[in-house]
Structures are given as C-alpha cells and as structure tokens.
Amino acid sequence: MYFSGTGNSAYVAKRIEKEIEGESLNLFGKIRNCDYSYLTSDKPWVIVAPTYAWRIPRIVHEWLMKTKLCGNRDIYFVMTCGGSKGDADKYLKKLCVSKGMNYKGCKSIIMPENYIALFKSPDENEALAIIEQSEQIISDTAQYIRNNLAFPEHHVTFKDKFNSGLVNDIFYPLFVHSKKFYITDACISCGKCEKVCPLGNIQLENGKPIWGNNCTHCMACICRCPKEAIEYGKNSMGMIRYVCPK
Questions:
Q1: CA distance 120 to 104
Q2: Which of 36, 110, 186, 222 has a beta carbon 3.0–4.6 Å from 230's, enabling a disulfide?
Q3: How many Å apart are CA 118 and CA 78, to the nearest integer?
Q4: What's the pLDDT at 154?
C-alpha cells in the first residue's frame, strides 16, 4: 500500500511490488473518501509513504489507526525521503503495538526532493541520477520483504529523536497549512489541482481553485499543475516543480 503526492513513493511501491510479485494499493482514494473498511492479506503488509518532518504523514498514520488489517500480522514500512527518516521507528513501533501488528522495521529510500514550500527540487537529470542511485537499495529492500526478514535497525542520534519528536510536533501546526497557496494568471481552470488533492481540500469557484483548511503539504497541487500556475508565497517562485520522472 502506498501514499504519494508527486510520485516518489508510488514509484518505489511499484518497484517493490514487481520484485516481490505482490499487489499494490494506492491509498489516495481510501484517504480522500475516508474509507476505513477492513482489508485482508495473506502476505506481509508493506506501507510505502513519504517522510513528513521525519515521520510518516499524519494522514497515513490516521488512516492506519482507523483501518483494520486482517490476515497476516507482519508489517513493513518504507519511507521515501530527501535526507533522513529520523526516529520514525519509535512512532511506527507504537502504531504497530496499538494494532497488534508485528513490526518488521522501516527502511528509508533517498529520492528527489519535492517539498518546494521550503526546499529546492532537482531538475530532471539530477532527479534521474538520484533515483538511479537508489535502485539497488530498493531491490535490497524488496529482498528483505520477499525473505520475510526484518529490516536492519539503524543508529538513532539525539538529532533524530529531536527532529521526529519536538520538531515534528511544532512543524505541523506552524507550517502545514494552505494559507500561502494562490494562483497566477497562468491558471487555465483545468481543475487538476482539485483532482489530485488527497484530502479534497481544493474547491473550484468560477473555475478557479480555493484552498480549505485541511492541507497535508503533499505538494501534489503545486507540482502537478500543468501550467505552473500555483505558487506558495514567495518560497516557490522560480522553483522547479517536481513530479517523479519515472
């Protein structure tokens, strides 16, 4: 199962799906429609998601908490990130304990940066080079899952604990909102931004997008706009819009 705003996690999930000969489920519809109906799998569960402030996205965490996963009790997590997953394991372990699942570990996969609200995204050639460097890691990750082996634990630093703890707690209320999104005259009223929002947070009024108060900063709207007509304050001006080239 995977959640993806601009394609990185979708790509990794599809690669793992192919190597373990499994089936993947895009959680976009489940999350957008608040669908928490139970799911069943005879094989271990694999959750692929981006890293938001050194933990899995809160909307993915909430969906997992509310959805009953039946059948196999083993669960793996794979997090795509621009740098580090921090101490995400701590919070994923708590999640698994609360659901009675067997935590098989969390593997981070370095992928191109997409968070243009704060950082610069690479151009296509740079992005392809980053993905190429991660291909073997993706294959190795799939092998652990195929062989039902737990992912190796990584050393957690004080900085990791600080980032996944206090910084994450502060980051969401202070930064994760849609107040800075706006459109330019380049908008052609195609409605794609409304369609790609996983929380249904964008409504069209007279063909133009209006953002609500329920935003997760997945960057799908701003990065997938075909005319680059969406800006995020001054942060995104002149920035490359990133969508996974694969």
A1: 33
A2: 222
A3: 23
A4: 86
105 touches 45 (CB < 8 A): no
- How far apart, in whole angstroms, are the C-alpha atoms of residue 21 and residue 14? 10
Q: What's the token pair of residue 144?
A: 């652990």
Both 23 and 138 in one domain: the answer is yes
For residue 40, the Cα-to-chain-centroid distance in whole angstroms is 22
Q: Which residue among 143, 172, 201 closes a domain?
A: 172
Estimate to the nearest angstrom the gap between the alpha carbon of 54 and the chain centroid: 11
Q: Are residues 151 and 222 in the same domain?
A: no
The answer as to whether 159 is a domain residue is yes
Answer yes or no: do 39 and 24 share one domain. Answer: yes
How many domains does the chain divide into?
A: 2
One domain for residues 107 and 56: yes
Whether 243 is in a domain gets the answer: no
Could you give the C-alpha distances from 103 to 27, 137, 176, 217, in angstroms and in order?
Answer: 20, 20, 28, 27
The model scores a pTM over 0.90 = yes
Q: What is the pLDDT of residues 50-77, one digit of tens each?
A: 999 999 999 999 999 999 999 999 999 9
85, 106 Cβ separation under 8 angstroms: yes
Q: Give me 207's structure tokens.
A: 């063909």
Establish if 156 belongs to a structural domain: yes
Q: What is the dihedral of CA 120, 5, 225, 219, to 10 degrees?
A: -50
Measure the CA–CA gap between 229 and 236, rounded to whole angstroms.
11
Q: The domain spanning residue 196 has which CATH number?
A: 3.30.70.20
